Amino acid sequence: MARLNMKTNILLYGVLGYTGNLFLERALERSLPIVLGAREKELSEVAQRLGLDHRVFEICDTQSIAACLSDIRAVVNLASISYGVNRFLIDACIQTGTHYVDLAAECSDMIQVLTHHDAALARGVMLMPGAGFNVIMTDIAGVIASESLAEPTRLCLGFATFGRPSRGTIRSLLRLATEPGYTRRAGELVAARSALQRRTFRAEGKDYSLISNASMGDVITSFRSTGIRDIAAFSYYPWILAQFMKGRLNWLRVFLNRYARWFFALGPSDGELESQHTYAWAHVENARGGSASVVITGPHAYIFTVKAIGRIIDQLVRNNVNPGFTPPSFFGRPLIEGIDGVRITVAVDGDQGRVHEVPRGGASGPDEGLGRPPRRQ
């Protein structure tokens, strides 16, 4: 059981970036005790307009950050910053008994966050990276798939998004394209490169081809949430990004990353946010030849992310947490059920699939099923 946390406020850091601003526009629940945070002094104007408290501080010094967290129950970090910077914020959260959530989906970042597990556990602090579309949907899909098949031994996960990503996401993809990552075999992380394997899944009558993506953090989160010892992650990416992942056209990758602000928009248009959708896919197998697949259909990745973050904040306010490194599936299916456009389809041993769908605007009770402890601690 989580240690009682008498602090009440939730600090939302990085709200002047694309995802943070989208949250303020589309998912902010003003009745919740939210405090806004950012490095930029312009934050004061935003906070005043919304009638919210705010804190302006850099996250490069643990003690300075800790001084800003005396009344903060949890930090939700929406800034696209690498672990090299986030580690000061994580250290400050552990020092002050403050729960920590961020959107980091990269395997390398998650491995680093995982090194803080014991210290966070001792302080009763939850560390939850991957609280965005990339990991939430695949993590929950993996759990559903693993529970649909007896004794699963292998898990493949993937996602497909459509439309323009934000400029920050593009720069992250370009930076990570050539970096080595990991797959998981026999329970151990094994170094791997991306774009060397392909898998296909079918959704709504159409086949989608995925390429292996060794940079994704699913090999960390899904191992802890399912206990399956062989895990590989895949993604649906355009041809040019697959070439970058294979080490080709490196000059173009470097050029696009350097001049991203000239070539790419800040983020998708409102029309794209409303019209585009996403898929998450999970496929499990066991030693007897059985298999099960799960496809989760959802709204645009950014819309899904901000809606899910709103639900996570609600659970943080209720102090529904799990100390130590915790994957998003801790909150269970109710974290995503009821979000407009979400539909879950399960197919076992090649059957036609069983569709589980919450009607538009409907949902289970806010606490039903939330807070299932991860299998691995």
Describe this structure in words.
The protein has two domains: 149 residues, NAD(P)-binding Rossmann-like Domain (Rossmann fold), CATH 3.40.50.720; 169 residues, Dihydrodipicolinate Reductase, domain 2. Helices cover 34% and strands 26% of the residues. The chain is built from 14 helices and 17 strands. The strands form three sheets. An eight-stranded mixed β-sheet has the order 10-11-12-7-13-14-16-17. The longest helix has 17 residues. It is globular, with a radius of gyration of 20 Å. The two termini are 13 Å apart.
Topology, element by element:
Layout (H helix, E strand, L loop, with lengths): L8 E5 L4 H9 L7 E5 L4 H8 L3 E3 L5 H5 L5 E6 L5 H14 L2 E4 L4 H8 L2 H7 L2 E3 L4 H15 L4 E10 L5 H10 L4 E5 L2 E5 L5 E6 L2 E7 L5 H9 L3 E7 L2 H7 L4 H9 L1 H4 L6 H6 L1 E10 L4 E9 L1 H17 L6 E2 L17 E6 L5 E4 L20
Parallel strand pairs: 1-2, 1-4, 2-3, 4-5, 5-6, 6-15, 7-12
Antiparallel strand pairs: 7-13, 8-9, 10-11, 11-12, 13-14, 14-16, 16-17
Helix pairs in contact: 1-14, 7-9, 8-11
What are the key terms here?
single chain, 377 residues, Rossmann fold, Dihydrodipicolinate Reductase, domain 2, 2 domains, 8-stranded mixed beta sheet, 7-stranded parallel beta sheet, 14 helices, 17 strands
